[in-house]
Write a structure and sequence with these properties.
This protein has one domain: Carbon-nitrogen hydrolase (Nitrilase/N-carbamoyl-D-aminoacid amidohydrolase). The chain has six helices and twelve strands. Helix 4 packs parallel to helix 5.
């Protein structure tokens, strides 16, 4: 299975240019699955503490508009997250999109930071803690949206349910890239699955601190590839059977 991860720039004009290049890359590489960063279709708004209903409304509208363009990546499966209103609550919802079945909700972000640059709990509500994997046409996928990667019990449960991929769309700072990669490696080890992640980036270092570096990590925590400013897109052909076999090896087989 050919999987693509990426780092996409934060500002709208830069993002639009990156999108064109990503579409070209995905077509050239014949990707089967593309993971986008967390709520990537609007500039990162949670770097400001004060909730602004007009900004929230604009972010939702931008994601609705850009969702119409996911077909540009077909026939690849697209994995991402988006802001949305549901049941009177503001949410960050992970989803998969496929050309045949369209949009399918997968998981709502349940662990929300609230600190400088990442005031997420001030902007939207927690999910209900439901971490069920979602079956795509190519693989069984479990989402951990950004901060959620640190709660390894969910990756462990995903492994027990047979997931092939733990998908982590992110918006994380430049100063902690090594820490986040360590989290991705640990998630792979406890799940026996490939961990894939895409991040937003703000290379001008003005406003939101977003550091890029997407990754593909193997089922035993081996780093298979990273994105960079020079190479913002990474596609690798991974063997999903390795994730299935890894479930039978240490430490995954050890009973709780």
């Amino acid at each position: 299975m050919k999987v693509t991860v990426c780092e996409l720039r934060n500002e709208p004009d830069d993002f639009a240019r990156d999108w064109k290049e990503l579409v070209r890359h995905v077509k050239t590489e014949k990707s089967n699955l593309v993971l986008l960063p967390q709520m990537t279709f609007y500039p990162w708004f949670a770097w400001k503490r004060q909730f602004n209903p007009n900004v929230w409304k604009a972010a939702i509208a931008a994601h609705v508009e850009w969702a119409m363009r996911l077909q540009e990546l077909q026939p690849a499966i697209v994995c991402a997250s988006r802001p949305m209103n549901k049941g009177g609550r503001r949410l960050n919802e992970a989803f998969i999109w496929e050309s045949r079945s369209g949009y399918r909700a997968a998981h709502v972000k349940s662990y929300l930071p609230d600190e400088e640059g990442f005031w997420e709990a001030s902007w939207y509500h927690r999910g209900n803690g439901d971490f069920k994997p979602i079956q795509s046409s190519k693989a069984l996928i479990g989402f951990v949206i950004c901060t959620e990667i640190w709660f390894f019990e969910h990756s462990r449960d995903y492994g027990k349910n047979g997931v092939h991929l733990v998908a982590c769309p992110r918006a994380t700072p430049r100063s902690t890239l090594d820490k986040w990669l360590a989290g991705g490696r640990a998630a792979s080890v406890v799940s026996g699955a490939f961990c894939i992640s895409s991040n937003r980036t703000n290379p001008d270092e003005e406003g939101a601190d977003l550091g890029g570096q997407g990754w593909i990590v193997g089922p035993d925590g081996e780093v298979l590839g990273l994105t960079s400013k020079e190479k913002p897109f990474l596609t690798m052909d991974i063997d999903l059977l390795k994730a299935e076999k890894a479930k039978q090896t240490f430490p995954r087989y050890v009973l709780d």
